Amino acid sequence: LESSLLTQPWASVCFGESAFLAKACFRDTGYTLLISNLSGVWYESADAEAVGQRSKELNKRLTVHVSSFLHHLCKLMCPLLAGQPDATTSFSCHHTAGSLSLHVKSELSGLPFYWDFHCCPAPMEMVSCHLVRPLIRMSLALQYQVQELTSLLLQKDAEIEDYRESGAILSRDRLRTEPFQEKTFQQNFMAEVRSSASPPSC
Questions:
Q1: What is the pLDDT of residues 123-152, one digit of tens each?
Q2: Regarding predicted confidence, which is higher, 169 or 8?
Q3: Cβ–Cβ < 8 Å for 101, 119
Q4: Residue 36 has pLDDT above 90, yes or no
Q5: How many CA atoms lie within 13 A of 149 on its CB side?
Q6: Which of 200, 195, 194, 142 is nearest to 21 (CA)?
């Protein structure tokens, strides 16, 4: 489950007025959920035995196989993570510095279905593996692309200026562009990065 979770993308989700980033992996043998508000990271990993025990406590009237519970949980969570939550399913979240609980209310086989994800703070290695290292790699890749594009724009400006000095005239004035200002671009870029350093609001 842990290795499969690595291949899952982060998704922006809202529980009430609180915004989070989340990813999850469901299998017949259990599930793993990872959730963050960029101030903390919580997770829960539950095997089939733990799911079976909790389902008996929360859904006494339902007598279905554990794999059916896991399949149903996957059907409830996947649309949420895809940005298309089911209107018939409700989610509520309560979190403190030491824990996070996600309560789910839906239906299964015509009966009420309840589930509670009990998440604890994720260990540092998990945070590093799923959040820190991917973000650093992405940041480095974007920095490299910005450097390449900046260099290309400066070369294009030099090429255009050479054409102008050679007497070339632009046939359509609407295509005229101002020279690329690298310093201004960098300042605007950093300002945008600082302003977006929190999860999107709900």
A1: 999 999 999 999 899 989 998 999 999 999
A2: 8
A3: yes
A4: yes
A5: 10
A6: 200
In angstroms, the CA 16 to CA 52 distance is: 28
Q: Which two tokens stand for residue 167?
A: 């007497």
Percent of all residues in the chain with a pLDDT value above 90, rounded to a whole number: 50
Q: Which of 90, 89, 2, 104 is nearest to 43 (CA)?
A: 2
DSSP the chain: -HHHHHTSPPEEEEETTEEEEEEEEEETTEEEEEEE-SS-EEEEEEEHHHHHHHHHHH-TT----HHHHHHHHHHHHHHHHTT---TT-EEEEEE-SS-EEEEEEEEETTEEEEEEEEEEEPPHHHHIIIIIHHHHHHHHHHHHHHHHHHHHHHHHHHHHHHHHHTT---S-GGG--PPP-HHHHHHHHHHHHHHT-SPPP-
Q: How far is Cα 41 from Cα 96, in angstroms, rounded to an integer?
A: 11
Q: How many residues does the chain have?
A: 202
Chain centroid to Cα 169, Å, comes to: 49
Q: On the CB side of 182, how many CA atoms lie within 13 Å of its CA?
A: 11
Q: Residue 184 — φ and ψ, nearest 5°?
A: -65, -40
